[in-house]
UniProtKB/TrEMBL annotation:
Matching CDD domains: IGPD (cd07914)
Pfam families, alphabetized: IGPD
GO molecular function, one term: imidazoleglycerol-phosphate dehydratase activity
Stored InterPro entries: IGPD_sf, ImidazoleglycerolP_deHydtase, Ribosomal_Su5_D2-typ_SF
Signal peptide residues on this chain, from the entry's feature table: 1-21
PANTHER family found in the cross-reference section: IMIDAZOLEGLYCEROL-PHOSPHATE DEHYDRATASE, IMIDAZOLEGLYCEROL-PHOSPHATE DEHYDRATASE HIS7
Protein name (record): Imidazoleglycerol-phosphate dehydratase-like
GO biological process entries: L-histidine biosynthetic process
Organism: Sesamum indicum
Keywords associated with the record: Amino-acid biosynthesis, Histidine biosynthesis, Lyase, Signal
HAMAP family documented for this protein: HisB
Pathway: Amino-acid biosynthesis; L-histidine biosynthesis; L-histidine from 5-phospho-alpha-D-ribose 1-diphosphate: step 6/9
Length: 230
């Protein structure tokens, strides 16, 4: 909350006889008071996927998808994005459907958490290096769903997880949220490093795009002045 708003509220609290107007806060300050929180539940015949995300969290992660390596990747969203991420699955946890359903639920929760997206940066871009791997992620939250995905994963499995499913995760997330997402691998032969670098870069780029710029006040960085939120 801005200092001037806080002072007015304190004056009103202790000196109620004065009807002093409280200046309006920008939308960024207003949302930050309670945190930008989104929740989604995806119900299929096989399972129930429940997701809760706090965009203004403290990197708290409670994730259980039934696959340890997928859990590890999703934890990067919390640790690198500084979001609170909760993912719970009840029912059949086959990796293919779980990966897609979690992507849909996370995309839906993110969309709800960000609301009208007024005042945010909208664009995010980050390169993450991890050992031999270097991955670039660039994204745009303007409401245009598009995924460009270029990862070359040498191994067919990491633990028991099929790395090719990661593309399905991002495709589902992109469609549910409505974001433009480009993922490019510039180096890397270690499958674990490539995938972890990808999620780290995505989390950092998303954090960058969802942060508020005080200079924007109640505007959006779009020539049309609105986002395509449908």
């Amino acid at each position: 909350m801005h200092i001037d708003c806080l002072l007015f509220l304190l004056i009103k609290m202790f000196l109620p006889q004065f009807a002093l107007p409280v200046p309006p806060m920008d939308s960024g300050s207003a949302r930050a008071l309670g945190g930008r929180i989104g929740e989604a539940e995806r119900v299929t015949r096989e399972k129930i996927v429940t997701v809760k995300i706090n965009m203004d969290g403290h990197a708290v992660a409670e994730i259980n998808t039934g696959n340890a390596f997928f859990d590890f990747l999703l934890n990067r969203l919390a640790s690198d994005g500084l979001f609170d991420v909760h993912v719970k699955i009840t029912g059949d946890c086959d990796d293919y459907h779980t990966t897609k359903d979690v992507g849909v639920a996370i995309g839906t929760a993110l969309k709800q958490a960000l609301g009208d997206r007024i005042g945010i940066n909208q664009l995010g871009c980050f390169s993450a290096a991890l050992g031999d791997a270097l991955v670039l992620v660039s994204l745009d939250l303007s409401g245009r769903p598009h995924l460009s995905y270029d990862l070359r994963i040498p191994r067919e499995t990491v633990g028991t997880y099929d790395p090719q499913l990661v593309e399905h995760f991002f495709a589902s997330l992109v469609d549910a949220f409505g974001m433009t997402l480009h993922i490019r691998q510039f180096a890397g032969r270690n499958s674990d490093h490539i995938l972890e670098a990808t999620f780290k870069a995505f989390a950092r780029a998303l954090r960058q795009a969802t942060e508020y710029d005080a200079r924007r006040h109640d505007s959006v960085p779009s020539l049309e002045g609105v986002y395509q939120l449908s």
